[in-house]
Design brief:
Layout lengths: L4 H67 L5 H21 L4 H31 L1 H4 L2 H84 L13 H67 L5 H28 L2 H6 L1 H11 L4 E6 L6 H22 L4 E8 L2 E8 L12 H11 L3 E6 L5 E7 L8
Parallel strand pairs: 1-2
Antiparallel strand pairs: 2-3, 3-5, 4-5
């Protein structure tokens, strides 16, 4: 049982589970990577939005400051105050978003420091100066200083945004690569699983399903009586054990049937020998003694005087009764084993049987030579029992008996035109005929439809029969 089907099935199932598990693990890892890539892409988008918003606040503050300096209208300071109030929160958000990237974090810090320096060192003093001396605030030097500071901040923003765009593009490319890898892993896992399943199914079909179906077919033939069937012993594990066990069982059944057939043949032969011996003993012993007694009684009757007549009459009656008993004994011994069968073979024995039949019999016998004694005895008793059944049950007007010898053996049939409906029942003569014929390796069949008569057919092998 080493390397049996159970072990092979467990190994194949484990391999399939390993491939499927590896495929799913790869998919799960890839999905996690894809989520991380999507998170980073979303983070880059958010960074760009916050950076744009922060730059917009600085521009709004500059616009409001210039408007106040030029027009001296306080309402222009409202955007400046609003931008100054919102700036710290947006700056903190930007620094938090780029905290995992030291380079971008440094750029963000420089932008925030530059913006705070712009506000503290330039914007606030300029507003105070414009409130005290509007003309001095509108000088070229003041406006040029603000422009340089603002250009420097926007240049930092440009570098920051360009770097973030590059990071976003790289993250998108990584996300695409992860997606492609996930698709490839899924396709490879699916293809590998399908291939392994197909191979596993093919293996199961070759190693289990086909041998089991063949064993089922052979078991059906075995059940139908073909005991010569055998399975090829090429299976592995439990299938090989099944094949060897089946062949052993079939061989045992075949040997048992051979022994049973030989035993039945010996029983039938012994019974025929006993019947022949009884018939011979009756004919040569009891029957001859009875005939002698009849002759002695008749001689004694003839020796008696005419008067008185009573003793002569009594002796005559006894002699007649004894002669009648002798005739009955002769008929009985002929039924036990007809002497004509032993002396002349089937043709004279069947001819005598047909003459004694209560139903007219058409006899067609084509047996040119003597057959082995078991075959002749079996054929005679098949015909005898069939004609007896015709006379007792068929209510037939005639019967037809046919015997033919060919290379296959002896073929005989008995047909009548009676009422039909004959069924072999336990204890009936037909069952006895079946046992006798099958004991010689022959076959017998009865076809009997109600109202259409009965046909009995038997095939007896001739070769291989013991003639002793």
């Amino acid at each position: 049982m080493k390397g049996g089907l159970t072990r092979r099935t467990v190994v194949a199932s484990g391999l399939l589970a390993l491939i499927v598990g590896a495929a799913f693990a790869t998919l799960l890892f890839t999905v996690a990577e894809l989520r991380e890539a999507e998170r980073r892409a979303s983070q880059s988008q958010e960074v760009l939005v916050v950076a744009n918003r922060l730059e917009r606040l600085i521009v709004d503050a500059e616009t409001g400051l210039r408007g106040f300096v030029i027009t001296e209208q306080p309402n222009f300071l409202e955007p400046w105050h609003a931008a100054h109030a919102a700036f710290p929160e947006q700056a903190a958000t930007l620094e938090r978003l780029v905290a995992d990237n030291p380079d971008q974090q440094a750029r963000a810090q420089r932008i925030v420091q530059a913006a705070e320096s712009y506000h503290q060192d330039y914007a606030v003093p300029l507003v105070e100066s414009a409130q005290r001396d509007p003309a001095s605030a509108r000088t070229v030097a003041a406006t040029e200083a603000g422009k340089r500071r603002l250009d420097a901040i926007r240049a930092e923003f440009d570098r920051f945004v360009a770097t973030e765009d590059d990071l976003a593009a790289g993250r998108q490319a990584h996300s695409d690569a992860v997606t492609n890898r996930a698709v490839a892993a899924a396709a490879a896992g699916l293809a590998g699983s399908v291939l392994l399943i197909v191979l596993f199914a093919a293996y199961l079909n070759r190693a289990i399903v086909s041998p089991v179906r063949l064993a089922a077919s052979m078991a059906g033939r075995l059940a139908d009586g073909d005991l010569g069937v055998r399975l090829p012993e090429g299976g592995r594990g439990e299938i090989g054990v099944l094949e060897r066990s089946f062949n052993t069982m079939a061989g045992s059944l075949q040997e048992s049937r051979v022994q049973l057939t030989r035993s039945r043949a010996r029983i039938v032969a012994a019974a025929d020998q006993a019947r022949r011996r009884i018939e011979r003993d009756l004919h040569d012993g009891t029957q001859q003694r009875l005939v002698s007694l009849v002759l002695n009684l008749r001689a004694a009757r003839a020796a008696l005087p005419a008067e008185p007549a009573e003793p002569r009459r009594q002796l005559a009656e006894i002699a007649d009764e004894l002669a009648s008993a002798t005739d009955d004994l002769r008929v009985l011994s002929r039924g036990i084993h007809p002497a004509s069968l032993s002396e002349g073979g089937l043709r004279p024995a069947l001819t005598a049987l047909a003459r004694r039949s209560a139903v007219p019999v058409e006899l067609d016998v084509d047996v040119p030579a003597r057959l082995p004694e078991p075959v002749e005895v079996a054929a005679f008793y098949v015909v005898s029992e069939a004609l007896t059944n015709v006379a007792k049950h068929a209510r037939a007007a005639s019967a037809h008996v046919e015997l033919r010898v060919s290379t296959d053996g002896l073929h005989l049939s008995v047909r009548d035109d009676g009422v039909g409906g004959a069924v072999p029942r336990p204890g009936s003569g037909l069952i006895g005929l079946i046992d006798r014929v099958e004991a010689l390796g022959g076959t017998i069949s009865v076809t009997s439809w109600t109202g259409q008569g009965t046909a009995l057919a038997a095939d007896l092998p001739v070769s291989g029969q013991d003639s002793s």
